[in-house]
Amino acid sequence: MNPQSDVLSELCDFLYPRSPYCGEFKPEYLNFNANLQEFAQRVNYICGLQTNGKISPEEAYKQIHLLWKQLKQAKKALVEQEKSH
What we know:
The chain is an all-alpha fold. It has three helices and no strands. It has helices at residues 3-15, 27-51, 57-84.
């Protein structure tokens, strides 16, 4: 195996950690969980950038608000899928 790909894989695992899904298995639940984990990871990065003075509090708020709206859309889609089944 290519040692460089191992390093990249480990770096990716470090930068984008994922927890295994342990809830009731339905594809839509798994999909929402992935969206939720991505939301949490991105909010964490935004908080770090704002804390270190790389972005303003206003910019951090705008970015987190946009991510929240995307997560709400994912939740809405989940509810609609459950209603259709």
